[in-house]
Write a structure and sequence with these properties.
Strand order of the largest sheet: 1-2
Strand content: under 5%
Largest sheet: 2 strands, antiparallel
Low-confidence stretches: none
Distance between the termini: 51 Å
Number of strands: 6
Number of helices: 18
Structural class: mainly alpha
Helix content: 55-70%
Length: 461
């Protein structure tokens, strides 16, 4: 077993199980690219500042590039004895370049090293999340345009409320995913500061140039307080929060896809390549993909709660508890990206059952509010109109009729203000097209939403 870099203080070797329990190498090895990138920037900075010789920096950089090549070719041996990705890289670097490799760790600690690695990792994965979100948004906008005239029932309490355009429904989810995109952008602004050079917690006695390393690594600048630099995991929590909200939106959408694809509802049909069958019931076509996304949402929530719980009682500065930040973060990243990746093509390929949607929209007296608005236009206070229409609907239910099936004479039993022109207001198309207020469900209003959505896409592609 190789001696630890910190073994000088200790008289006994680490217990084997303690070593395994303490190690993070088997999950934090995915940070290798960022660890090596940060180390290269640090080595060059040390040379620029005259802390190490230029020739030493060149040797260290060449060695680090060889380590990177070995890892990417699958030739690198990840050993639990190395404890974490930082020590694994440094150990192999020293094997390649000799004792000069030990100079790399001058004026830094694993505390600021891991903080910069994880920040770079989050910035990288956040860009991937944004790309997937933009693709999903594009699918929603295209589908809205292609189904602009399709009428469906709008629900409150999962009961038929008012007729809406299916495109209007899709654009509601556009708004959610747009906010998800914006949240990712927002957290990237706060995460984009470099903790490298903060040391263990108090900074360093060496004349380092933190602005150089920050700029080289693509950050806005260095973090401003060395204690906060190594003890902060807000950027992880913010990412997990944004991921949880995004998964919640995917889960809500999935719940409706599951409901709408039920044969008894039959608003949409998922294509066979996004469904599975039953091992015993040959007729089944199960919406497993949206069900899995709905289930995986709880998994991402769990990652957020894990991080909040880890951090809630930690004294300043770094504590080993913070090693537990990576597994929930990595799992949440993988889960969110996989969910977004599979969701967009599923929605793009799903078939919309136009006639069934329209038929359902005509049920449940969905134009009752339009009849009330009609009476208001006749000068009746809305609360009185509401009562009149309620009585009218009760009569229609008792007589097994829809509102538009009632004769004027029947409706006049409840209000003498109802005239023949009432039918211009209580049909499905009239109801939808009359809701032309900004953000409403008329075709004109929805196309305004689509135009704004296209502008958002153009700005962020």
């Amino acid at each position: 077993m190789s001696e630890k870099p910190w073994a000088g203080r200790f008289n006994l070797p680490t217990d084997k199980f303690v070593e395994e329990f303490n190690a993070s190498i088997y999950f934090d090895k995915r940070l290798y690219k960022f660890d090596i990138k940060g180390s290269i920037a640090h080595a060059v900075m040390l040379s620029r500042q005259g802390i190490i010789a230029e020739s030493e920096a060149r040797a260290i950089v060449a060695g680090l590039e060889q380590v990177l090549d070995e890892i990417e070719k699958g030739e690198f041996n990840f050993d639990i004895g190395d404890e974490d990705i930082h020590m694994a890289v440094e150990k192999r670097l020293t094997e390649i370049v000799g004792p000069v490799g030990g100079k790399l760790h001058t004026s830094r600690s694993r505390n600021d090293q891991v903080a910069v690695d994880v920040r770079m990792y989050i910035m990288y994965e956040a860009e991937t999340v944004k790309a997937y979100l933009i693709n999903l948004i594009r699918v929603l906008v295209d589908k809205a345009i292609n189904h602009i005239g399709v009428v469906m029932p709008g629900f409150t309490h999962l009961q038929t409320g008012q007729p809406i355009l299916f495109s209007h429904y899709l654009m509601a989810y556009f708004q959610m995913f747009k906010r998800d995109f914006q949240r990712i952008n927002d957290l990237m602004i706060r995460a984009n500061y470099c903790p490298l050079g903060a040391g263990a917690l108090a900074g360093t006695t060496f004349p380092i140039d933190r602005n150089y390393t920050a700029n080289t690594l693509g950050f806005y600048g260095p973090t401003e307080n060395s204690i906060d630099s190594v003890s902060d995991r807000d950027f992880v929590i913010e990412f997990l929060s944004a991921a949880s909200i995004c998964m919640m939106h995917l889960s809500r959408f999935s719940e409706e896809i599951i409901l709408f694809s039920n044969p008894d509802v039959n608003f949409i049909t998922l294509t066979d390549d996004y469904c599975t069958g039953s091992s015993i019931m040959p007729q089944k076509k199960n919406p497993d993909i949206p069900e899995l996304i709905r289930g995986k949402t709880g998994r991402v929530y769990g990652s957020l709660v894990t991080m909040l719980t880890i951090m809630k009682g930690l004294p300043l500065a770094y504590n080993k508890d913070m090693q537990e930040d990576k597994e929930p973060l990595f799992d949440a990243v993988d889960t969110l990206l996989a969910s977004l990746k599979v969701f967009a093509p599923m929605i793009e390929k799903m078939n919309v059952n136009v006639d069934k949607m329209r038929q359902s929209a005509g049920k449940g007296y969905s134009t009752a509010t339009d009849l009330a608005d009609y009476l208001v236009r006749k000068g009746i206070p809305f609360r009185e109109a509401h009562h009149i229409v309620g009585k009218t609907v009760a009569y229609a239910i008792d007589n097994n009729k829809n509102l538009e099936d009632l004769s004027v004479n029947e409706m006049q039993m409840f209000s003498k203000f109802i005239e023949n022109d009432v039918y211009n207001y209580i049909t499905l198309d009239a109801s939808v097209n009359s809701r032309n207020s900004y953000g409403g469900t008329s075709a004109e209003s929805v196309m305004t939403q689509v135009k704004l959505a296209k502008s958002f896409l153009d700005d962020n592609l």
